[in-house]
């Protein structure tokens, strides 16, 4: 007979999914709140869509019709019947659900329709440092305008949003290009197959990380990375690879203005009609940004920006973090992109058959919060704990409950210690909770109509300057005895 107990599951997180406590949640909520205020000031209304969408509505490339979970988390909707239903998938961004909503509600919407959204998204991809399978995004989009000024407004608003989130001028930069530049280049080189073009664009999107040596492998047969993973290449003709290299080198000169970059790109070679249209659109965006007095250093034109998603059709933008960041051991960490977006004029047409122009920007809330923490900016999001009421005796429980209720009624976060530890452990608990103060109602205080309040913030500060433990005990820094009626006013002074 076996003496072994039941098998216990191993307590662990699924890879790419993180637990978040007070400080992390506070950072993300602050970013969402402050950026949402910017979006609403620019005239965008909030919209919330479901976490699940039907897989075909998401528009993700799904190679396996029997189980379409490539890149997404999918399940089959049985709809309460015996027949297998359609596949549903957790949204991988907020843009595809917006396109579905716009197509579904177009007749009733003001046009152009301006909306912002925030919330978690899920991607079934390989996780890594700072790269999660579940993370928060915050988007703003304009649906129904084909004007380049709509792109410029999204870009300018993104600059303000990033500053509202906590980045000072110079700590982030938005780089802008246009997918039609590469459409023209591919047209001139005879590359017409859509999948081959998309593979090439995804390769070019890695230019910052891999450099030309890595990109040229992905434009050719493929690339084996350091982890042993092999990525199939675009197999472009040698002449087209040469044209791409010349194009990327044309404007890869630091210090060029947006107008100078456009001139350099125009001189790089034959970009065809699509490329000429792209240059005209970028010039219009430049004029609009200048009219809105957007800092030239905050927004640059960079032809290496293409964005990896296939639904972009025109202008594309990417926000790069310039803030210096480090890991827990002080080693430099490069976060790179913290957001991006662009024009997607064909996404709504997937549902309606009619082209509806649209443009938008999204940034990773979770990623930006991690970056600010890695830059030593996490203290701003430290969570203030509640005032802790210490428990001494079961017989005096009514006094403790009365005190904690009085504090809460005054709008002060407070908790009654409900463990079974002694005084010393309770004070350590209050300190770990980040409590601003501890309330002590021992038998002597209750009998005298008094209360002892320990200002934990003042105590921490004073203790840092007292080397001798006996002196610390004698001085009792931050501790006062007051009439019981002054409890609320005394706590409020400490907090404020």
TrEMBL record:
Residue span(s) of domain Aminoacyl-transfer RNA synthetases class-II family profile: 29-372
Entries under InterPro entries matching the protein: aa-tRNA-synth_II, aa-tRNA-synth_II/BPL/LPL, Anticodon-bd, Anticodon-bd_dom_sf, His-tRNA-ligase, HisRS-like_core, HisRS/HisZ, HisRS_anticodon
Record-level Gene Ontology MF annotations: histidine-tRNA ligase activity
Catalysis performed (reactions): tRNA(His) + L-histidine + ATP = L-histidyl-tRNA(His) + AMP + diphosphate + H(+)
Predominant cellular place of this UniProt entry's protein: cytoplasm
A Pfam family hit: HGTP_anticodon
Annotated family: Belongs to the class-II aminoacyl-tRNA synthetase family.
Protein name according to UniProt: Histidine--tRNA ligase
């Amino acid at each position: 007979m076996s003496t072994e107990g039941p098998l216990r599951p191993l307590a662990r997180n699924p890879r790419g999914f993180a637990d978040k406590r007070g400080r992390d949640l506070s950072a993300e909520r602050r970013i969402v709140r402050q950026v949402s205020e910017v979006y609403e000031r620019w005239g965008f209304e909030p919209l919330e869509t479901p976490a699940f969408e039907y897989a075909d509505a998401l528009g993700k490339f799904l190679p396996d019709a029997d189980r379409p979970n490539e890149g997404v988390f999918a399940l089959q909707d049985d709809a309460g019947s015996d027949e297998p239903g359609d596949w549903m998938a957790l949204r991988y961004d907020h843009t595809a659900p917006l396109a579905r909503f716009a197509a579904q509600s177009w007749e009733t919407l003001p046009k152009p329709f301006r909306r912002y959204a925030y919330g978690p998204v899920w991607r079934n991809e390989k996780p890594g440092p700072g790269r999660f399978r579940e993370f928060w995004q915050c988007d703003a989009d304009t649906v129904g305008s084909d004007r380049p000024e709509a792109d410029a407004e999204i870009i300018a608003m993104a600059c303000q949003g990033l500053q509202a989130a906590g980045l000072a001028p110079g700590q982030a930069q938005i780089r802008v290009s246009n997918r039609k530049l590469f459409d023209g280049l591919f047209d001139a080189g005879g590359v017409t197959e859509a999948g081959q073009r998309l593979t090439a664009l995804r390769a070019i999107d890695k230019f910052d990380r891999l450099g030309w040596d890595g990109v040229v492998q992905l434009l050719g047969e493929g690339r084996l990375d350091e982890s042993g993973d092999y990525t199939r290449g675009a197999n472009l003709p040698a002449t087209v690879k040469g044209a791409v290299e010349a194009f990327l080198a044309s404007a890869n000169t630091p210090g060029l203005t947006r107008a100078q970059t456009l001139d350099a790109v125009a001189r790089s070679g034959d970009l065809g009609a699509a490329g000429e249209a792209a240059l005209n659109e970028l010039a219009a965006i430049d004029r609009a940004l200048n009219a809105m007095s957007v800092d030239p250093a905050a927004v640059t034109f960079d032809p290496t920006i293409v964005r990896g998603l296939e639904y972009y059709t025109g202008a594309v933008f990417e926000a790069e973090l310039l803030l210096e960041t480090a890991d827990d051991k002080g080693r430099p960490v490069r976060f790179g992109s913290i957001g991006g977006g662009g024009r997607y004029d064909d996404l709504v047409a997937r549902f309606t058959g009619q082209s509806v122009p649209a443009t938008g920007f999204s940034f990773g809330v979770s990623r930006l919060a991690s970056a600010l923490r890695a830059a030593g900016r996490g203290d701003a999001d430290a969570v203030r704990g509640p005032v802790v009421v210490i428990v001494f005796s079961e017989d005096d429980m009514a006094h403790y409950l009365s005190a904690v209720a009085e504090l809460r009624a005054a709008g002060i976060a407070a908790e009654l210690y409900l463990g079974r530890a002694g005084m010393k452990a309770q004070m350590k608990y209050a300190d770990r909770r980040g409590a601003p103060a501890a309330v002590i109602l021992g038998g002597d205080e209750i009998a005298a109509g008094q209360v002892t309040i320990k200002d934990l913030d003042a105590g921490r500060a004073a203790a840092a300057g007292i080397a001798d433990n006996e002196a610390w005990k004698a001085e009792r820094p931050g501790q006062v005895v007051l009439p019981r009626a002054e409890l609320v006013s005394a706590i409020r002074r400490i907090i404020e």
